[in-house]
Amino acid sequence: MKDLGHLKYFLGIEVSRSSEGIFLSQRKYALDLLQETGMSGCQPVNTPIEEGLKLCVEPNQVSIDKGRYQRLVGRLMYLAHTRPDLAYALSVVSQYMHNHGEQHMNAVMRILRYLKNASGKGILFAKNVDHQSIEVYTDANWAGAVDDRRSTSGYFTFVGGNLVTWKSKK
Known about the structure:
By secondary structure, the chain is of the alpha+beta class. The protein has helices at residues 27-36, 66-79, 87-93, 102-117, and strands at 9-10, 13-17, 21-25, 122-126, 134-141, 152-159, 162-169. The strands form two sheets. It has a four-stranded antiparallel β-sheet with strand order 1-2-3-4.
């Protein structure tokens, strides 16, 4: 066995150590995704999804490149390991993996435009914190889905001020 030193990069996740703690991000992965999709020169936006956006399956909608849509959403889901700010937007667009249209692809493109604005975001696990404090934040959108009137809920859990779990679920 050989000691390779401190972890710096693993499976697309960058690990940075500092006096503040350990920072995990997927900056390179996000920038590569923008480059591969031709969105590196796009106009950035401040939010991953439009406020109040209600996606649904339109009757007679024309499906656009199913493989491309599924690949993009899948690659964006991998980003959610260090990007909890994408959880809700990805839960919305992933519901239409097999039946999507132009409005759904536009929502995915908006997430990419958001990445352009915030490619370096990630998770900081801070040092010297009170590990006995636990905070949980939750929210729900009751019967908010246009297609089936199902609810969406989500939560974030912090232990000692560090984000440890998050989830958004329909």
